[in-house]
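Dear Dr. V.,

Thank you for agreeing to look over these. As mentioned in my earlier message, I'm a first-year student in the group and I'm still getting used to reading structure tokens, so any feedback on how I've presented them would be very welcome. I ran two proteins. I've put each sequence directly above its structure. The first is here:
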Amino acid sequence: MRLEHWWYTIPLRLRSLFRRAKVEDELQEELRFHLEQQVAREIAAGKTPEEARQGALRAMDGMEQRKEECRDARRVDTISNLVQDLRYAGRALRRNPAFTAVAVLTLALGIGANTAIFSVVNAALLRPLPYPRPEQLMLLFEDFGHRPNVVSFANFTDWERESHSFLAMAAGRQASFNLGGTGSFQPERIEGAVFSWQLFKTLGVQPAIGRAFAANDDRLGAARVAIVSYGLWQRRFGESSDILQRRIRLDGIDCAIIGVMPRSFGYPTRGSDVWVPIIPLFGPDLATNRAWHHLYVIARMRDGVTIGRATAEVNGIQQRLLAANSGELLGQGATALPLRDITTRQSRTSLLVLLGAVGCLLLIACVNISNLLLARGSQRSREFSIRTSLGASPSRLMQQLLTESLLLAFIGAIAGLVLAYGLTGALGVHAQALINADDIDTSAPARIDGLVLAFTAALSLLAGVGAGLLPARRSMGKDPGEGLKDGGRTATAGPTHQHLGTGLIGAEVALSLMLLIAAGLMIRSFAALQNVQTGVRVESLLTAGISLPDSRYASRASVARFDRILLERLRTLPGVRGVGLVNCVPVDGYCGDNGFSIEGRPLPPGQFNLALERSASPEYFRVAGIPLLAGRTFTDRDGRGYNDQHPHQSAVIVSESMAKKYWPGENALGKRIFFGDASSPRYEVIGIVGDVLISLDTRPQPTLYRPAFEGGNTDFYAVLEIAGDPSAFGSTVRRAIAGIDPDIPAYKIRAMTEVVGNSAAHQAFTTLLLGSFAALALLLSAVGLYGVLSYLIVRRTSEMGIRIALGASRSEVCRLVLVQGLRPTCVGLIAGLAGAAALMRTMQSVLFEVAATDWITFLSAPALLMLVAVIACVVPAWRAACADPVQALRSE
């Protein structure tokens, strides 16, 4: 029976869709036949022809209604009705260009901002890592006091040998190399990585050309090999087909190129250009020194293994190592964390805050559109009543009104996508500031892809339905008779419409206040960040990185000799007031610490003292503006004894926070420390200097300085005090360094102001975006409030005229309108404060020295919003107060 039903209905529906005119003629003829039959029966009952026709029409409930019922029964009118509604909506929007422009622009701002921010969130948080089965990839860490820490290679080899939960495992770190000059190419500093040979097997990625590392490549005495990135192959080798027969010079050592990675590959960062095996680079000490914690360990779990099981296994291995090596510097345990969680840990909260902010902005835009549609729907009440009287069903009118709002949303989405492409390009330039991942950054570039387009389409649909549903239901709720009466001029606007409009304004104000408070907290946090005392001179300083290849500067004496020559050469440059050397640039992030022991204070096995370790030349402290608080700074002879045939005591300088932490209530000067076992050379504390920050959002940490002339650091920075503009001095410094050794490129030549600015780049860009969204929300709220009040004033013109004619003063009328506008504002402020108090605590992790409940922000944001609301209400109120009562009554 069901098959017979569809056998009949499918051809009927197809015929109704594609031969509409003929089917309509047949329907008209059929209904006319039934009407004539009914008329004949009425005449036979003794009625006149006119009475019989009227009775027949009543019996059939009207010809047009019957036609609609028949069309609905065919279930094919949806498409044709949609086309008709689209045409009608298009004509209606063209007739109201001002309304259309405001609505489209409002939606474009909301949809465009959401799409752009979602493209970054998608790239950083949602898009799968570009490796097979990325959920199996883990990063393994040692635990030091429940704090994940990087791993020693010796511990890694034991994990790799004894574990059964992992398919493959690799250890390594990000690294930089001096790429030797060839032909027309000058030497340059490139980013890369050193890893054990199973890195590419662990990631599940193979070279596009050549092969991956093999076990024989990663052993002592192995021939030096390298794998290059697709970009480096293009840039330095011109995509040569004989790339596997070519060699690359890294840090003065020729390496055979054995492979080229795919175009999109980048690990541990997107900018990595070369990968080399770790053991040939670091030598035999790597496998035995358990105290050298500098490596990231990446592992791929086997199928069916859970994170909990993997963590328990590697933790058990670490516990056995700790028991067997009680005198070594080992972590108290180990843990496994998903690779995705580590790469996004610094940026997840701020990105979600931004996504929530643009979501609020879109809600505010939708509320504004709803208010506009409510006002427009009230003007069209007579039209809707006539349509209902002629037989249109409520659902049919609802479909038409929703089609109009969806058409608006579609046009707004197109404009928003154009805006989003521009915003995404700008965000792509600053994506690193948003993502804020340095050591490991596996995020893909932000772009408008299929998922982002699907998000925009869904957003547009929700915006269209959300903005149009309430006005549509409001328009459908009227009795046709009342609508026909309201169609003329009335003394007042309907109370229902007033309540809806003011309720929407209250919601808009609440959302805007939450955005304003979030932006205010970020601005306060950024201001606190900008006022931080870095501990060094910021103006007039220039930094330049130098890395000496171990192949040519193998001894400490050769490194110290280069240091002295470099200082002498740079001091003679015109405009240079002073030069110092340091292995880590201040305020440029973490770059190394070291464990040490205090003479006369032995610690239990497994415990250690820890401080940031720096290597500095004698003049560095004066050049950098680091104050000497006690004692003295280095001289040229400090540290030489460590390199002599008969080692004796050397010197060390400590920071103020280190002196207070390790020698509280004592004078740190004259105290002695050592690194390693008890037979190691001693370092006497000869000076105490001011604290220097490693980044703007961290507190001072204990720091010790060793003499640069020990020659223990081959990677360091020259810090120059320049008489003029430091940023214009880079080429001069580069030429001076090349004059000493043409194979050593200077890199990261930056003014200290740029270094400090980079330290605050993440918070600065987040604050800029959040502040911009809050300003847009404030503007949209003001426009919405002004629009609603202006519309209500027009609707109540006659009422105002009557009030003035009956003796009301203009100030009273003005006050009446202000109260009407500010009442929903006050309600919105109360709701917004409650919402902000509930939600802003999630922002605490991205704030610096500012509480999420900061009272200054929670007072100033409502005051600013109230001021804007008053300004938005003043013009409509003044216009109402200045109305001519005679003219107002005449217009009625």
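The second protein is here, in the same arrangement:
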Amino acid sequence: MAFEIPDDLMVSVSGVRGRVGEALTPEIVARFAAAFGAYLREGRSERPRVVLGRDSRTSGPMFARVATAALQSVGCDVVDIGLAPTPTTLYAIRHHGAAGAIVVTASHNPVEWNALKFASSVGMFLDADEGPRMRAYVADRPIPRAGWDAIGGVSTDDAAVDRHRAAVLGIPFLDVEGLRRRRFRVALDCIRGAGAVLLPGLLEELGCEVVGLNLEPDGRFPREPEPVAENLGELERLVRESGADIGLATDPDADRLSIVSDAGRAIGEDLTLALAATVVLGHRKAPVVTNLSTSRVLEDVAARAGVPIHRAPVGEINVARRMQAVGAAIGGEGNGGVILPDVHLTRDAAVAAALVLQLLLETGGRLSELVAELPSYVIVKDKLPRRGGSLDDTYGLLESTLGAPEIDRQDGLRLSWPAEARWVHLRPSGTEPILRIIAEAPTASEARALVERVREALAQTRVPS
């Protein structure tokens, strides 16, 4: 009998995710983990080694045990690093000479979700070519199980977080001693997620006085997991009350970082990458890479440094691959995800935190002052339910009616008017059953008008919603 994937299970370049006990069950996790192990075994005579990490969600230990057994059942050796940020898990791949990794995390999704993310031997998530080959074992190909004498083993690694922290401290232009002398006061919100096992220790190593919030990694998220400005009211208050120089907030698996300025105001997650790029480009001149939905403020930062910027489809792996291709100095996504090749090619909140602190050290100014010096734009984000149907007619209508001078169809449709500092991006989400509409302009009214034009086109072309 063929294995059936539930309709409400999200399968994409980001992995496989769903609501716990509904779309995501132990049976689903076992099938996908075994399929990943079988994929890694292709063409290998020896047993592949697979790193396994998880965030703090309450379903994480259960799914980690299921994934471990499934990997063993196809003859893979598992290196369990336990509770750890996603970037820590990916960083551990090369240390162990592993064939890949599974991360049990739903990243920014609500607490009732969980997921599996799959990474390759180079420490990056599976790309558009690798993912389908792995998923062929889920529904189309038989999974070759190991016999009694070929079952995989299990070992643990309790030092993965320490090695990751050391790698961040080893960033070539990070002035660790200077930061220790400066002793920044940092308000930190780890949302009771995996970042709590890495960020506090890193900041203390950098000489920071940490004022903590939600540092118990028990998976009982006290706010919405996505670290967008509207979810950071408690951190804003903590910054004001404690007199902190900066506030830092992570998502549950600590691959994204959002910032609150010394004025006690969340500055928007798009500025994390812009600030990090500012300091990196001060030390090396090379291209910058980001996705199609990231603020054009990054273009301004790149132009000021005299380097080109390249845009890739949304998705960490797409940005990372483009960074490799162009030899980027830094890259990432406008959701607070910063990728620095000096450490590894994956989004990393710890890297982002270190870079922003280095920028404050080098400039000697307040964060609110640095933000005020950047061009100001307004991003409006909207979403609609999606139940299927082609968007080609909608894309065609938008292209013909809006008359944008720049059109990009790498990932959905992005229309831009560079001279007017406006753009709009329509794409199906890879992590939720929705359509995303993101627009940016110098004013909120202009950005909202672009969103409304897209909504009108969707209505006219009767795309299911």
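From my reading of the second output: The longest strand covers residues 113-120. The chain has 15 helices and 20 strands. Does that match how you would interpret it?

Kind regards,
E.
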